[in-house]
Design a protein that fits this description.
heterodimer, A: mainly alpha, Non-ribosomal Peptide Synthetase Peptidyl Carrier Protein, Chain A, globular, B: alpha/beta, Peroxisomal Thiolase, Chain A, domain 1, eleven-stranded mixed β-sheet, two-stranded antiparallel ribbon, 15 strands, cytoplasm (chain A), PP-bd_ACP (chain A)
Chain lengths: 79, 410
């Protein structure tokens, strides 16, 4: 994993912990938001809003629904 | 009063107030005569003529888990904290979801959320708003979150009547149990309105004290030098239960929630009716509804907000509707005025007074205004008599709403 990707993962873990209470250490690339982390669609909106502030990347609604795993979000943010 | 009517008891109490983060600490502070009113340090403070308020003693966002707190308006945070305390205090009753209800109100709702969200929308755009903005600002939000927390399905309601909201909620909850719609109802009021706009708006109505050099002395019901109310925040919640349900599970019973009276002044949108006809009607109806006489009432927790117009009129109305004998106090002298939360916390205080047979003194009352014949408790706390005792909690609101609730000792 590139250093940049590690930083993004750490930032994402912090955001998800803040919003859902899930420990940041459980936020790993292979995890599915719905099946593994039990994150609902409104929480995903909160995460997307926070990620926009943190990483400066806009996540449109039609893209958001395709982001199923943590890895999907990492890839989207890295463009 | 019908002999076979369902009797309603109080089995749980919860409160978070400017003088304490729970019932025990709040009640101890009231009996010690402590004020919860302090100078504010908010960034908007120089924009308003009132620079103090009764900020909650314990920040609810520090008590609740962070992921939960961030989805809740502060008024909802207070309500959940107090409701959880009350529910545990009642022994977390086993009750079928379809027999459990909630009636919890706020006078203003999630106004800080509304104002902050408006700033976000204008400065950063719609898509930066939290998806929880609507449930945070809606006035039924506190009731709805408590209902979700407890799984209540018998009906979740929010009665809105400005500063009478909390008392109206408790009256409505009692009516709900009497009507057979529920066995257990969680009821009360909450408010979180310490914000520059609200203070500016109440100050524009010339309703607030501007005693900026003496915050702790600013709320002074019935004192000749009173100059307006002091804003407070927090929540007070009770668990009401049919007596049959409570006895069957061996619950501790604090008091009977014995009667409620409602009226409307139909006089002026903010000014009290000078003869006190509306509030006399509410108290008289509450006594009739409870099946008690004026002589049975030994204590009144008055609405008395420290405004020039309201306090003396209420004292005179108490004398007419009940008599001059009850021990009358205004705990707002210590907590400030919690608006829609007032009827919630003051019902808790009325019940504690019956339980401990003691009435906390009104503080800051040094120079009694003219025209008051009722027995105002000030200087020191006073004991309630042995034997059967009952008490009234009064709450009145902008709009001319009047609510009186009667509690009887267990």
């Amino acid at each position: 994993m590139a250093a940049n990707e590690q930083d993004i993962l750490a930032g994402l873990g912090k955001i998800i912990n803040e919003i859902t209470g899930i420990p940041a250490s459980e936020v790993t690339p292979e995890k599915s938001f719905v099946d593994d982390l039990d994150i609902d669609s409104l929480s995903m909106v909160e995460i997307a809003v926070a990620a926009q502030d943190e990483f400066g990347v806009e996540i449109p609604d039609d893209q958001l629904k395709n982001l199923k795993t943590v890895k999907d979000v990492l890839n989207f943010i890295q463009g | 009063m019908s002999a076979n009517r369902v009797r309603v008891v109080v089995t749980g109490l919860g409160a978070t107030t400017p003088v304490g983060g729970d019932v025990t600490s709040t009640w101890a502070a009231l009996l010690a005569g402590q004020s919860g009113v302090e100078t504010l340090t908010a960034d908007w403070i120089d924009t308003v003529p009132v620079r103090f308020a009764g900020t909650a003693a314990v920040d609810p966002a520090e008590v609740l888990p962070r992921p939960e707190a961030r989805r809740l308006d502060r008024s909802e945070q207070f309500a959940l904290v107090a409701a959880r305390e009350a529910w545990q205090d009642a022994g977390a009753p086993q009750v079928a979801p379809e027999r459990l209800g909630v009636v919890v109100s706020s006078g203003i709702g999630g106004i800080t959320t509304t104002l902050n969200a408006y700033d976000t929308y204008r400065e950063r755009g719609w898509n930066r708003l939290s998806p929880f903005t609507v449930p945070m600002l809606m006035p039924n939000g506190p009731a709805a979150w408590i209902g979700l927390d407890l799984g209540a399905q018998a009906g979740v309601h929010a009665t809105v009547s400005a500063c009478a909201s909390g008392a109206e909620a408790i009256g409505s909850a009692m009516d709900m149990i009497r009507a057979g719609r529920a066995d257990v109802v969680v009821a009360g009021g909450t408010e979180a309105a310490i914000h520059g706009l609200n203070i500016a708006a109440f100050a524009a109505a010339r309703a607030m004290s501007t005693r900026n050099d003496d915050p702790a002395g600013a709320s002074r019901p019935w004192d000749r030098d009173r100059d307006g109310f002091v804003l407070g925040e927090g929540a007070g919640i009770v668990v009401l239960e049919s007596e049959e349900h409570a006895r069957a599970r061996g619950a501790r019973v604090y008091a009977y929630c014995a009667g409620v009276g409602y009226s409307a002044d139909a006089h002026h949108i903010t000014q009290p009716e000078p003869e006190g006809r509306g509030i006399i009607m509410a108290m008289t109806q509450a006594l009739n509804n409870a099946g008690v006489s004026g002589q049975d009432i030994k204590h009144v927790n008055a609405h008395a907000t420290s405004t020039p117009a309201g306090d003396v009129g209420e004292a005179q109305a108490i004398a007419k509707a009940i008599g001059t004998h009850p021990l009358v106090t205004s705990t707002k002298s210590m907590t400030g005025h919690l608006l829609g939360g007032a009827g919630g916390i003051e019902s808790v205080f009325t019940i504690k007074a019956l339980q401990d047979r003691i009435v906390p003194a009104t503080i800051n009352l040094h120079d009694l205004d003219d025209g008051i014949e009722v027995d105002l408790v000030h200087g020191e706390n006073r004991k309630l008599p042995e034997g059967d005792i009952a008490a009234v909690n009064n709450s009145f609101g902008f709009g001319g709403h009047n609510v009186s609730v009667v509690f009887k000792g267990a």
